[in-house]
Amino acid sequence: MSVFRKTYFYYLTFEVFIFLILLSRSVLPLSDPIESVRAFTRDIEFDYIVWTLDAIKVKFGQGALNTVHYLDDDQRHDFVIRYIALVIQIQNTETNLENIYSDPAIENPGAVAVSIKDELSRLYQQRDLLGPLAESIIQNQLAQVVSDVGLSMIGQPVPPILYRTTPLPLALIVSPREVIRQDADISLVSNLTIDQIITLENTVDEARNVSSLVEEVGGVGVYPTMVMQTRDLNWLVEVVAHEWTHNYLTLRPLGLNYSTSPELRTMNETTANIAGKEIGKLLIAHYYPELLPPPVEDEPLVEESQVEESGEPPVFNFQHEMHLTRLIVDRLLEAGKIEQAEEFMEKRRQYFWDNGYHIRKLNQAYFAFHGAYADEAVSAAGEDPVGAAVRALRASSPTLKDFIKTISWMVSYQQLQELMAEK
């Protein structure tokens, strides 16, 4: 066996070890409340074992060929840009196909769509051919950035950075009605229809008197990590970095205790969001500088008195409006006004819809899911002090490395509070 193949054998052994850790973390005792929800989902739950074994097989093929190491930086850059252009072409063609079947003026959409389907088939073949190498290039680039910021051992990230572009499972989120808290996050197969989704939500809500939501996700921190197809390279590298951060944390107390409490979940997700954005931006700046977005200036929030003076409504600010919604919902729930809170959320959902944000369902489960990503002061997290403490720790840390090294060894929100009290 060659030195390379020996190295890659140990590499894959490490992958399996990580996967077993991640899988064991998700196993719950039968007495756990989540089991009562799983009575409705067992037949439609996503099979991570089958997916992971297939992904490892693909990654082994990539590593065995070692193609990425025969390309220089310019060739790697051009290949990834070519791949993103292909994804854009695929998504545009898929939209064209959907429009054909949606257009009432087309009497025989099947016949009209034949050439579009043939084109999609050809594009999918190209994607299957180019995708694995594009993933390898981005993995190598991200590994270099991670090493540059000091989050590596002997020049290599641990665990190694591996991701796979794939259709992602849906997430069934369950929260109590009387308080916003994530009690369940169950991964479902990705091909459920909207009718099946609504039926499942209604069934769970009625049977358990809870608030549920089936939501799409952008990535899953199994190993290799799962990332959805996208035409946005900035978003892609941010998500890959985010999910790798989860893998990194899983080897340390913070990640191992992810499900121990809502506070620790928020600490994990907020840390991964912060790291994903910072590392992703560094990667784009170094390897794809032409795609680096311009600095975003914070828009001042417009007060009601200013609106009255100008006579014009303020520009709609999604984050601000969602933050405001969460604050009011929290106060209504604290006062025991559950039905009033739910009626208010539905009115706000319609308001978001009218302003171009097509949220299918806005309820306690929505906030339980999105509120854990508290890297922004104004967000669906509302006044959650956990996210604010994580952001304060990052602001007081000299480097991203110092921040992650510090928070990764914490096992409680109290530890974070005590540390910030000393600063």
What integer value in Å does the Rg equal?
Answer: 23 Å
> Strand content of the residues, in percent?
5-15%
Shape: globular
Binned, the helix content reads 55-70%
Structural class: mainly alpha
Low-pLDDT ranges: 1-10, 23-31, 302-310
For the largest sheet, list the strands in their spatial order: 1-6-5
Explain what this protein looks like in three dimensions.
The chain is mainly α. It contains 17 helices and six strands. It has helices at 3-25, 34-38, 48-65, 73-102, 109-112, 114-148, 194-208, 233-250, 253-256, 262-287, 304-310, 318-334, 338-354, 364-370, 385-396, 400-407, 413-422; strands spanning 163-165, 170-176, 184-188, 210-215, 219-220, 225-227. A three-stranded mixed beta sheet has the order 1-6-5. A hairpin with a 7-residue loop joins strand 2 (170-176) and strand 3. Helix 1 packs antiparallel against helix 3 (48-65) and helix 15 packs across helix 17. Mean pLDDT is 88; it is low at 1-10, 23-31 and 302-310.
